[in-house]
Amino acid sequence: MLPKFAWLASWAASALRLGLGVRASAVGPRPAQPIVVYEFEACPFCRKVREAATALDLTLQIRPCPRGGRRFRPEVLAAGGTAQFPFMIDANTGTAMYESSDIVEYLYARYGDRAAPLHARTHLTIPLGSAASALRLGHGTSSRPSHPPAQLLELWGYESSPTTRLVREVLCELELEHLQVAVGAGSPRRADLVARSGRDEIPWLWDPGPQRGLHGVNAIIDHLEQRYGSRSQ
Ligand SMILES: N[C@@H](CCC(=O)N[C@@H](CS)C(=O)NCC(=O)O)C(=O)O
């Protein structure tokens, strides 16, 4: 069971993002395959990319790279030569890219209906993003031992959802690759969420291994810790 402080801090972190990462507001052409992003939850540069994904209503295939992580960090070094995050690979266009502002600009140009907003193209947003991470006291920064899932997990939510953040932190720390399916306010995928999960409620985790869909932050986190965390077999 998460302490009350965790919920409050996550709400405050969302407030610091001033409404970014809430709404699907710039939806353009759709990629055939999800865009792969190597990143970690507490990184403010990575947050910029996730906020853009919510605005663009994109599904990201997240390969978490927390500090000390050994599962996906070597792939970034091999593909790009530097351990710097975020790092994006878009198999739809054969593009691989570092630098959060470049990635955001690229995503808007390819998958948006307009150019990237000014705040997304600058680093002005980074101090507030760092403060948001600081409020979470290091959660979503460092790796913990885990067992990888055999099949890709799906997390439905949106970037600035305080409850979805608490789940993302655990996925990140356990280095669990997953699809982050953006269903911000106004997302055309809300109907899919209801069809798949039976409710218009996020976060929703789909685990294809045991074929289980879970609602509720505590239930989702318990499932992840028990099935994939250090207490699992
Ligand atoms: N200018 C880069 C900065 C990225 C950056 O500094 N990322 C940090 C994490 S917040 C990083 O990769 N640190 C190295 C590490 O975590 O090993 C961008 O905008 O993407």
How does this model look, in words?
The protein is of the alpha+beta class and 233 residues long. The chain has one domain (4-19, 35-202): Glutaredoxin. Helix content is 39%, strand content 16%. It has nine helices and eight strands. The chain has helices at 4-16, 44-56, 73-80, 100-111, 118-121, 126-135, 162-173, 190-197, 217-228; strands at residues 35-39, 59-64, 87-90, 95-98, 153-157, 178-182, 204-207, 212-215. It has an eight-stranded mixed beta sheet, sandwiched between helices. Glutathione binds at residues 43, 45, 67, 83-86, 99-101.
Q: Care to give the gist of this entry?
A:
The protein has 233 residues and is of the alpha+beta class.
Radius of gyration: 16 Å
CATH topology group: Glutaredoxin
Mass-distribution shape: globular
User: Mind telling me the CATH class?
Assistant: Alpha Beta
Instruction: Give the H and E element order.
Output: HEHEHEEHHHEHEHEEH
What structural class do helix, strand and pairing data support?
alpha+beta
Contiguous runs where pLDDT drops below 50 for at least 5 residues: none
Find the count of extended strands (DSSP E, 2+ residues): 8
What spatial order of strands do you see in the largest sheet? 4-3-1-2-6-5-7-8
Task: Tally the structural domains.
Answer: 1
CATH superfamily: Glutaredoxin
Which strand-content bin applies to the residues?
Answer: 15-25%
Distance between the termini: 21 Å
Largest sheet: 8 strands, mixed
Comma- or semicolon-separated keywords:
233 residues; alpha+beta; Glutaredoxin; 8-stranded mixed sheet; 8 strands; 39% helix; binds glutathione
